[in-house]
Amino acid sequence: MNERPSWYSRLRREPLTERTFTKDLRNKIEREIASRELGRGSRFGRGTRRMWAAGLIGAVLLLGGYGTVQLERERMAGEGGGSDFVIAKGWIQDGGQLPAPTGTLGGIVKKQGPDVPVFERMLNTMDYFTTVQGAYHVSEDRGKNEYVVEFTVDEGEVPGSSHKRLDGKTRQVYSITNFDGKVMLHMYLEEKRKGKPFYWIDDRLNKRTGEPPAGPRFYKDSQGMNNWSARGGKAWADGLDLVYPSYFAFWTVDEATMQPIFEITGTEPFLDREATIMEGKLDAYMGEKQGAERYKYWVDSETGVILKLLLTDRAGEPVTVMEMTEIRFDEPVDREVFSTKPQEGWTERKREFRNPEIEK
């Protein structure tokens, strides 16, 4: 049988070449995904839908020669149990060797004195505390999706973390992520916030040094693409978006100039701490994703941790609210909460996606 598939002749006429993955091309791919039955009827898609879309975009990136760079990262609470709240804008590259930068550079910041701007602290919160414990409430999509996050983190010599998510109405725990310094336990319910619990364990995690990335945190490269570099803490608690708010800091960066654009509108007490208030307008891309126009952050002046986040629409109505209800820094922690021992009744399930920081 000598018949060639339909793509064969096209490939001979137009062999694969490296393409600059522009914002227009990104949006075109997103429109194509949205036009398929897969994403129809949902603003962002859920569960395996998100994974399918990410896989398609990832394949395009690999064909284009972009390797480990990701187009968009969502804060996910596991298969079918996650939030639709997209927190990443543009290109995100977490760790590894960054391409050679050109033009405006984002800063590299290590622990410094009290003169460090609150924006820089947001990019490096782990430099300003050893332990943090607390809880925050999240209301998304104008109150249609609510949940509570309870957390304990130790970024000290023996790091560890515990991150639980509870349904905002029933208080049912539907997700647990624990790191005991060596391995990580993930537990999720079989269906979104209900069903049987299953778990898996990551036992080949790379050891993190706690140091910031070696290159700029955000910049425009020689191909004109915007690059963003998040920073992971030793405690592997990256899913705590308010505690490690790099992505929310990136929202303030203008994509044309790669400079932060926001207004400091004052300070006020918040949970017995001083909060610096940052306000600004979301860019067109992220505004469309969030269904919002403006952001307002109450940022802990000392650590850079976000104490409250508010997204509002054109009429000033709340779209998303994330608010700390309790927070304590540098107090002793009970390491029992970091346990990675599965509970009775949990079913082990093999992981269906690869953590980019797991050793080969």
Automatic annotation (TrEMBL):
Region Disordered, as annotated, extends over 340-360
> What keywords are assigned to this protein?
Membrane, Transmembrane, Transmembrane helix
Q: Where are the transmembrane segments?
A: 51-69
Biased composition, Basic and acidic residues: where in the chain? 346-360
Please indicate which superkingdom the organism of origin belongs to. Bacteria
**Name of the protein described by the UniProt record:** MucB/RseB N-terminal domain-containing protein
